[in-house]
Recover the amino acids of this structure.
């Protein structure tokens, strides 16, 4: 069967499953809509959390990013998994015991203050919208690459699907679709990874394969990769280029940010018991680790394969996938020295980095670009990092159905994350803002109706972000994690572990963390991007890592301000005692 | 001296978080370059911790915590079925 037909079949079948699940599991009360009636088994919740967590970026871009960054890429691997230890040990079981619907719910009740709740709502909405914009764009890109529909049409199809199961099913519908989406995405990630591992190292387990010898030789893959990288003018693949302090701070910001992300925390509200919340975090990390330990292996395989199959080959004899992805627009070749050979090395091939293709072809049949070549280096290839995952099935010469599977997997990753984020946005609006602050007298039925409306509006806004992407999406990802670490994590943690913290301390802490982190990131990303290098950074900490410092500021401010004001009322002490019991 | 449920929980938490810190920030970042002098198979040890090992330890830490806390729950709240029933209401 043709690739196009297979892709439609796989994507269509997976969508039919998601819609079927949504109809079967639709929500009947706010309890169902917000927390799936607390009836989700820990294993199912673990899978749902993993799908919720792993976005289009994890699925498509992470391996390519690691291939490009080498050991520096470890910040993402450790940062996006280590946070689950903090969640399981410090937050999830206690917040589950608290037993309400949302993160602002906990902050508002524990700090007996509507202002605290409002600050939490603002942080939550900002964090979640930043995040969801990227997902919708991801949906559009996958559609346009694999199904050859327009990006905007892709976004609209994605919106309709999410609309259907999020508005109808709420948390209950989302949970069970996410379980299905996890199965699709992990299968789609592992199959090509296993085959490419066999191809390069003869080892069927990618996690072991990339520490193995290259098949048919006695050289270890990573040693070879180090040697090739140095020859081409890059740093050794297995060595850091960033300073240790920056790596430390970025990793910490991502970890504490993960633990403070509302759409991840609420997933643990859906299990029946406190002990299930702990177990569930463990399962979630197992399911996440399956992809996160495979990604660095895929990165190493793809990088070595890329170098070996294109370096100093004639354009005419370059492999078929090279030309396929050049046609799609993820690769460009500019023959700087006119020798007809593809020369790959460190540096940008083109001025303004991204290729602007023109319709003519060059003398070897390559796509020409309008950019002038960057003469400061000898590199002739522009490659989009995403190619490391997307082109894998072709590189490993796998049948067409595997490529179709990767398309369905990438869509599953993007849709599941988008749905989870949209749910926390709608819950914080209908439950925290409407029910708890503006209109306390509405009935459960009315609240459910508002929740559905809020979800619909949120999907619409997210879709607009996908169709008219703000140019800063890539830059603001640091924002989402930095803010989660600097605002929500400290007050959640102290709310459980430090009874004496009063509302004044919590509000001051959140606000200071918010202001410090957002001004530092905005300064270097938007106001003065030309100064964004380590000479100007405070203590050598990049904007990506500043969230950790923001968190420390939050802690210090919260604890000191708290000591000037009176103790929290007696019933808060009892509440915390109650939360601490399993 | 007999420890309360909360005190025992804090001791477990702190010990596991120390391990968490050592395998990631310690072996993966701070001492990573020194560990690179040792190799297991084709992996430099520091590199392995930063891209593989730390993640395996994270999983292990959570499941050890689950086990220890379940034991602790049993010890302090012996009829755990009672907790279950209360939750189901």
């Amino acid at each position: 069967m043709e690739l196009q037909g297979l892709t439609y079949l796989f994507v269509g079948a997976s969508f039919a499953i998601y819609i079927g699940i949504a109809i079967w599991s639709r929500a009947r009360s706010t309890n169902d809509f917000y927390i799936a009636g607390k009836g989700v088994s820990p294993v199912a919740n673990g899978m749902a959390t993993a799908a919720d967590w792993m976005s289009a970026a994890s699925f498509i871009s992470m391996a390519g990013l690691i291939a490009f960054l080498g050991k520096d890429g470890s910040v993402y691997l450790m940062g996006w998994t280590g946070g689950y230890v903090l969640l399981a040990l410090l937050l999830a079981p206690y917040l589950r015991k608290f037993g309400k619907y949302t993160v602002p719910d906990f902050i508002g009740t524990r700090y007996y203050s509507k202002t605290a709740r409002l600050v939490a709502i603002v942080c939550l909405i900002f964090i979640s919208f930043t995040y969801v914009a990227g997902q919708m764009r991801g949906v559009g890109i996958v559609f346009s690459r694999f199904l050859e529909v327009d990006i905007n049409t892709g976004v609209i199809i994605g919106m309709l699907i999410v609309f259907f199961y999020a508005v109808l099913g709420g948390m209950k519908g989302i949970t069970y679709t996410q379980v299905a989406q996890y199965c699709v995405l992990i299968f789609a990630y592992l199959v090509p990874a296993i085959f490419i591992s066999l191809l390069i190292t003869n080892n069927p387990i990618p996690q072991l394969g990339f520490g193995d010898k290259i098949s048919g030789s006695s050289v270890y893959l990573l040693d070879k990769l180090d040697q090739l990288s140095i020859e081409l003018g890059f740093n050794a693949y297995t060595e850091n280029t960033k300073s240790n302090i920056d790596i430390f701070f970025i990793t910490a910001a991502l970890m504490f940010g993960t633990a403070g992300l509302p759409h991840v925390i609420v997933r643990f509200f859906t299990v029946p018991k406190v002990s299930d919340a702990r177990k569930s975090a463990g399962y979630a990390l197992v399911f996440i680790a399956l992809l996160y330990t495979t990604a660095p292996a895929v990165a190493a395989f793809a990088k070595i394969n890329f170098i070996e199959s294109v370096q100093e080959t004639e354009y005419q004899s370059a492999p078929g996938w090279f030309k396929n992805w050049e046609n799609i627009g993820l690769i460009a070749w500019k023959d700087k020295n006119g020798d007809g050979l593809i020369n790959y090395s460190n540096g940008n091939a083109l001025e303004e980095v991204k290729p602007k293709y023109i319709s003519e072809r060059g003398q070897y049949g390559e796509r020409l670009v309008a950019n002038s070549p960057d003469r400061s280096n000898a590199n002739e290839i522009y490659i989009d990092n995403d190619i490391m995952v997307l082109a894998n099935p072709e590189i490993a010469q796998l049948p067409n159905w595997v490529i179709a599977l990767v398309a369905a997997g990438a869509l599953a990753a993007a849709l599941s994350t988008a749905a989870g984020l949209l749910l926390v946005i709608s819950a914080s609006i209908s439950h925290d803002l409407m029910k708890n602050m503006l209109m306390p007298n509405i009935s459960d039925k009315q609240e459910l109706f508002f929740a559905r409306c809020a979800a619909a509006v949120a999907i619409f806004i997210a879709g607009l972000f996908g169709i008219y992407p703000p140019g800063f999406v890539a830059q603001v990802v640091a924002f989402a994690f930095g803010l989660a670490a600097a605002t929500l994590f400290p007050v959640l943690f102290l709310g459980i572990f430090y009874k004496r913290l009063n509302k004044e301390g919590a509000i001051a802490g959140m606000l200071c963390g918010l202001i410090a982190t957002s001004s530092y990131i905005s300064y270097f990303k938007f106001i003065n991007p030309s100064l964004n290098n380590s000479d100007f950074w405070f203590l050598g900490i990049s904007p990506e890592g500043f969230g950790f410092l923001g968190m420390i500021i939050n802690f210090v401010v919260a604890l000191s301000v708290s000591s000037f004001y009176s103790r929290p009322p007696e019933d808060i002490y009892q509440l915390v005692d109650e939360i601490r019991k399993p | 001296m007999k420890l309360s449920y909360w005190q025992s929980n804090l001791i477990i938490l702190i010990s596991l978080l120390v391990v968490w810190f050592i395998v990631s920030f310690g072996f993966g970042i701070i001492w990573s370059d020194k560990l690179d002098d040792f190799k297991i198979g084709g992996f430099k040890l520091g590199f392995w911790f930063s891209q593989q090992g730390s993640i395996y330890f994270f999983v292990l830490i959570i499941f050890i915590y689950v086990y220890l806390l379940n034991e602790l729950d049993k010890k302090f709240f012996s009829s755990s079925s009672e907790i279950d029933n209360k939750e189901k209401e």
